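User: Can you help me understand a structure? I only have the sequence.
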Amino acid sequence: MNKNWLVGLSALIVANSVPSNVYSQDLTDALQCKAEVEQVAEVPKGIVILGEMEVVQVPYYNREVPLDRLVRDYLAKEKPTSVDKKIVVYKSKRLGEVYVNDALLKQFPIALGSSPKGDKEIMGDRKTPEGDFYVAQSYDGKFGPSLLISYPAVDDAQRGLEKGLISKGQYHQIVEAQENCTTPPQGTRLGGADLFHAGGTGYDWTWGCVASDDDVAAELKAFAEVGCKRVHGEKVARTLLRILP
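Assistant: Let's start by predicting it. Here is the structure, written out as tokens:
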């Protein structure tokens, strides 16, 4: 890999306060010679660091272009017969990604709750739910542009019922909401009100939500669609929220 490009990449990591462990390359050499470079080189367009920790060429990724334009460019060129939207979060890497179909369009840093490890279990544990969800609501809230994660899911309700955290009535309310892709009950002992929202990154400060920088949160809100749709008779999220450990 070109040494000048690595210098620029290492400086960009520092400038954006993105943990260097997000990147797969050994940056030791780049960090040693970074001090000798006065101008920070831009990461080449179309180069991206995937969640799987690989540096690859991605045709539609361009960190300089707004997300809505990237979506339009992708749709205009590919002319897909169907459109599947997806927002993926890698909690351990504090990394988010945006996809249309299988095309990666954006990466962004995130912040989590003050107990970032592990799946959410109970109200007040400050953990972020893990799994696949749909967008239950989209609105401008206390922390700016917000997307409500459809937690608790059916498996959470089953766990809560077995452990005596929720009643049978609450269990059935959660199951019904999931079947209809509406907002599940948010006030049970399983917790709720877990959002994608604005407010900034750099350290874990939320109560279990996924925080991003303000401009990113606005882009995500404009990109995401609420609820579900039917595809070949099956219910799928209009915008899949996939939250991984």
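Now, to help you interpret it: The domain at 90-94+106-151+191-244 is CATH 2.40.440.10 (L,D-transpeptidase catalytic domain-like). The longest strand covers residues 103-109. Let me know which part you'd like to focus on.
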